[in-house]
Structure formats: structure tokens, C-alpha cells
Write a structure and sequence with these properties.
Helix content: over 70%
Number of helices: 2
Radius of gyration: 17 Å
Largest sheet: none
Shape: rod-shaped
Strand content: under 5%
Number of strands: 0
Order of helices and strands: HH
Structural class: mainly alpha
């Protein structure tokens, strides 16, 4: 079995890991972003808006990783 054959077998697991990682980073990034933006700019509304943008970006990448993972699980690569 070549390296790429074994890599294709583990690709759904790798994408599952990145899905959870991006979702967790989205929550943590939104919380930390809100605190930092609130301290720096002293505007709670804009801080919450920027934190929401950070959260949405990371959740978007988590959803992309999850959808790729599900597609690979439904149609495994034929080697």
C-alpha cells in the first residue's frame, strides 16, 4: 500500500479532527475576540459584532470540513 492509499483511508478522520478544532477555535476566538475588542475599543456592540464575525468564519470552515468528511465516508476512494 502506498503512502497516498493510506492517507486517503485516514482523510475522513483528519477532517473530523479539523471540524472539531475549527468549531472549538470559533467559540474560543469569539470569546477572546469580544474581550479584547471590548477592552481596546470600549464599544460592546462592535465588539460583539466582530466576535460574531470571527465565530462565523471558523464555523464555516468547520462545516466545510464536516461536509467533505461526510462525502468521503459515503463515497470512499477506490484504489
Amino acid at each position: 500500500m502506498s503512502f497516498f492509499g493510506s492517507f486517503e483511508a485516514f482523510l475522513p478522520r483528519i477532517l473530523e479532527f479539523f471540524c472539531g478544532l475549527f468549531f472549538g477555535l470559533g467559540i474560543l476566538g469569539a470569546f477572546m475576540g469580544y474581550l479584547i475588542f471590548d477592552i481596546v475599543f470600549d464599544e460592546p456592540f462592535f465588539s460583539a459584532l466582530l466576535a460574531l464575525i470571527v465565530f462565523c468564519v471558523f464555523v464555516f470552515f468547520a462545516l466545510v470540513a464536516k461536509s467533505l468528511c461526510l462525502l468521503l465516508k459515503q463515497n470512499p476512494p477506490k484504489t
